[in-house]
Amino acid sequence: MSSAQIRYAHDDGVALLTLDNPPLNLVTLPLTRELDALVSRLADDPAVRVLVLTGSGTRAFCAGSDVKEFPQVADAAVAKKLARENEAYGRIAEFPKPTLAALNGLAFGGGLELAACCDIIIAEAGGSVALPEIKLGVFPGSGGTVRVTRRIGEGRAKEMMFLGEPVAVETALAWGLVNRVVPPGEALPAALSLARDLAAKPNVALQLCKRAIAMTFDRPEREAVEATLALSDQVFRTEDCAEGVRAFFATQEPRFRHR
Description:
Helix content: 40-55%
Mean pLDDT: 93
Distance between the termini: 27 Å
Radius of gyration: 19 Å
Number of helices: 11
Number of domains: 2
Structural class: alpha/beta
Largest sheet: 6 strands, mixed
Order of helices and strands: EEHEEHHEEHEEHHEHEHHHH
Strand order of the largest sheet: 1-2-3-5-7-10
Shape: globular
CATH class of the largest domain: Alpha Beta
């Protein structure tokens, strides 16, 4: 199926969403609505085990918000724009299954905030990322102050947001903002290859692992560790756990059924 500013494809457990608002795949109000609806549906689709986000073309994953929309939302920016973006972005950040962003070119502003919602970010060599909102007299309002900071730490996040200057993806890799840097033109193939590997793994275990990792950020260490025990109890009761143990003793490849 297709929509006006997002293209959707699905193959063997991997859902691919492509931002398609050339030339820079800017975030618009219609794109935000489409993204929210698509991700909401895919979260509950058992056929989808991994979600991949990318952009059309070769110039940009996403260069951020369409500044031309600013005059129509300026009188109530949160209600008309940011609340909607945060709802859509939050669905990706809270997506129960693994998520990957393939940065085919630059990721600026809301584009980087969107990528930061994903579990794993793969970028192409020579690209750059930035949070340039300060140059417009504002600051990142769609989760970047939280999600980027959690990835790279307070000092580097302040440098990015206070200065608003582009950061090479090679530097972003060293900072921990992106996970992998691949040759130009290879971000999407690399992301899809990794997504297929993840789609073959026991999906219930991946989902529970993702939930356990998320607990790290909102509670004391001992409490977080204890909370993961309930998740471990669930995962040890799955059919995939039984299959994994069976295959181990039989020296065979496991045949996971994601339940």
